[in-house]
Amino acid sequence: MKTPPLLRPGDEVILLSPASHPKSDQWRQGVEVLESWGLKVRLAPHALSHYFGFGGSDEERLSDFQLALDDPAIKAIFPIRGGYGSSRILDQLNFETFIKQPKWIIGFSDITAILNHVANLGIASIHGPMPHNFCQVGGDEALEMLRNLLFEGKTHIEIEADSDNRLGKAESILVGGNLSLIVHLIGSKSLPDFRGKILLLEDVGENLYHIDRMVLQLKRAGILDQLAGLIVGGFSDCKEAGLSVGKNVNQIMLEHTSGSQYPIAFEFPSGHIAQNFPLVFGKNIKLLVNANKVQLTD
């Protein structure tokens, strides 16, 4: 697995919209943050385009992302936001230059498709905050962690233990992201090999019976039986609907992982929440879950 070079002050990075278009000007605050880190920020030609709900047509979004992959001056790629649309352009992208000269891709939500696709190509990426939500109230720690990760390359996270956690430890490569997107990738070449991996899952705005259905799909596909560990991030605004399953997210996860022995960490600060801690996908990481804390270190 190749890890892209760390960033240095003066490096050029690019903002683009491979999924949905920005809903507001919040991304401009993201530019200010990146510039305060000493980075030069380029806006892709179609970064602010609208094509229905997308950040431009498929052709425009494809063109911007191909430019970002190929231009040697660009050292990191920041999708402005998620939404929907990344997987529509994945199969048309040419990653030959990117594989030879890897660079960081940072994002979450719909960007899950891209992160896992490049992990399959042997390149590490970062599941973490995007410029559209850099300045969320309460997200300062996550943003500082992202800066440290990009410039110094270290992961050291400790959080308090959750009462639903399953204790244990694991050391493996981290993969995953948005649950809806992981299920969406099943059967495609973008789906990672989960055997012996640590899986991160998060989601937003899904009814609990939808969550149950998707986690059950992971189980039926044999994915949940293959893991070395499971990290359950934020499941924001996921509520019971008219069709009730009688379980919360933690209970759904525990039911469908019953019989396995690997550690499970619940309520991890990752996903559609202010404290969206950045994590490196495609890189070996150590997970410790004990009675007092959850620890992630490289």
Architecture overview:
This protein has 298 residues and is α/β, with parallel strands linked by helices. It has two domains: 12-139, Rossmann fold (3-Layer(aba) Sandwich), CATH 3.40.50.10740; 156-297, Glucose Oxidase, domain 1 (3-Layer(bba) Sandwich). It has nine helices and 13 strands. Strand 7, helix 7 and strand 8 form a beta-alpha-beta unit. Helix 8 runs parallel beside helix 9 (249-256). The model has no long low-confidence stretch (mean pLDDT 96). It is an enzyme of class 3 (hydrolase). The active site is at 109 (nucleophile), 202 (charge relay system), 272 (charge relay system). Its EC number is 3.4.17.13.
Ranges where pLDDT stays below 50 over 5 or more residues in a row are none
Radius of gyration: 18 Å
- Count of the separate structural domains: 2
Termini gap = 14 Å
Percentage beta strand:
15-25%
- The top level CATH class name of the largest domain: Alpha Beta
Number of helix segments?
9
N to C succession of SSEs = EHEHEHHEHEHEEHEHEHEEEE
Average pLDDT confidence is 96
CATH topology of the largest domain: Glucose Oxidase, domain 1
| Backbone structural class | alpha/beta
What can be said about the biggest beta sheet?
A: 7 strands, mixed
Oligomeric state of the chains present here: single chain
Number of strands: 13
Q: What topology, given as strand order, has the largest sheet?
A: 6-13-12-7-8-9-10
